[in-house]
Design a protein that fits this description.
Belongs to the HIBADH-related family. 3-hydroxyisobutyrate dehydrogenase subfamily. With about 375 residues, this protein is of the alpha/beta class. Helices cover about 50% and strands about 10% of the residues. The strands form two sheets. Strands 3-2-1-4-5-6 form a six-stranded parallel sheet, sandwiched between helices. Strands 7-8-9 form a three-stranded mixed sheet. The longest helix has 29 residues, at about 230-255. Mean pLDDT is about 85; it is low at about 1-35.
Length: about 375
């Protein structure tokens, strides 16, 4: 299957033809909205950002607002790109009003020495970096050796280690480099700039990436060689899925045995069952924890959607097979989420909707 078909099949909101889609990833042959000072953009001080969805849109906003200019005093510019051009135009318009002196251009990643990607799957990462037509790799091949060596790519998508390593190898062959830098914290963390970012790659590239990544996060951690960041993220999200399903079962059991859900939630959060899901994202609609409003309070809208949560669980199961690690609980959780991820009713809602599925469908049907 060609990569250009993947975008349509995975419903990223694109109605582009193949040639249009190629231009959307960075062709200089198409006119887009830019900031009034875009002509002053300098490649060495420009950050390209590809993927302005629920996470990426907030992340680039924090980058523009918080990223410090280099000591030289030059302005840091930004090149924005997404298959949904309306998302690009909306962000540029808003940022032009809030930061009129920041250089902003649309869909010209070849004009950026630092490129960040935040896309849904490994197939999208391959298409952006090394796919047919206008990709990052094709743009690099048209540059000087010095420009290639000055190019650092940071993929913040949660994908297969094998894909990340294969893409990095092709970029390194032309002189550029890539680090995997997946994030944890969800849409709320992206909006507040409190993400946790796990980085894998060379220590030199990691050190270069830190100032950029810190502008979007509360903590950046070096995990080791290329792929180590993804390993940490996949392991964390495996545990996240396990705890959410376990919490949902415990809350439903307690409720049906006669315990008030709010009372049970308070007990869990002051006992050994306490976890992130119980403290921040309790799946029971009638439970209030702290001042924040969880997705359960709004029909499970927003948050970490079920189909992406299942994608990460499936990545963990696949990685465990390769690493010869038994996942007795993890595999069960992945199998439980699988039909929900494919469901129109549950797939695009927060993964805590597993509680509603258990409550309404029964454990034998989930």
């Amino acid at each position: 299957m060609h990569a250009h078909k993947t975008l349509r099949q995975l419903s990223l909101g694109s109605s582009f033809t193949r040639s249009q889609r190629g231009r959307a990833w960075g062709s200089p042959h198409r006119r887009f909205a830019t900031s009034p000072v875009a002509s002053s953009i300098d490649r060495s001080n420009t950050i390209g950002f590809i993927g302005l969805g629920a996470m990426g849109g907030h992340m680039i906003t924090n980058l523009i607002s918080r990223y410090q200019s280099p000591a030289s005093g030059n302005k840091v510019g930004f090149a924005l790109c997404d298959v949904n051009q309306a998302a690009v135009d909306t962000i540029i318009k808003r940022q032009n009003a809030e930061h009129p002196d920041v250089p902003l251009i649309s869909c010209s990643t070849q004009k950026a020495s630092t490129i960040i990607t935040m896309v849904p799957t490994g197939k999208h990462v391959q298409e952006v970096y090394v796919g047919e037509g206008k990709s990052v790799l094709s743009a690099l091949k048209e540059m000087s050796q010095d420009q290639r060596a000055d190019t650092l790519c940071m993929d913040q998508s949660t994908i297969e280690q094998s894909v990340s390593k294969a893409v990095a190898l092709q970029l390194r062959q032309v002189g550029a480099d890539l680090v995997d830098a997946p994030v944890s914290g969800g849409v709320i963390g992206a909006e507040k700039g409190t993400l946790a970012i796990m980085v894998g790659g060379s220590k030199t590239s990691y050190n270069r990436s830190v100032p950029v990544l810190e502008a979007m996060s509360r903590k950046v951690t070096y995990c080791g060689d290329l792929g180590a960041g993804l390993a940490a993220k996949i392991s964390n999200n495996l545990l996240l899925g396990i705890t959410m399903l376990g919490l949902s079962e415990a809350m439903l059991l307690g409720k049906r045995l006669g315990v008030d859900p709010q009372v049970l939630a308070d007990i869990i959060n002051n006992s050994t069952g306490r976890c992130w899901s119980s403290e921040v994202n309790n799946p029971v609609p009638e439970v209030k924890v702290g001042d924040a409003s969880s997705p359960a309070h709004r029909q499970y809208e927003g948050g970490f959607v079920t189909k992406l949560a299942h994608k990460d669980l499936a990545l963990a199961v696949s990685a465990a097979v390769e690493a010869n690690v038994p996942l007795a609980v993890g595999r069960c959780v992945e199998e439980t989420y699988k039909p929900l991820a494919k469901s129109k009713e549950f797939g695009d809602r927060d993964f805590s909707v597993i509680y509603e599925a258990l409550d309404t469908l029964g454990s034998t049907k989930v």
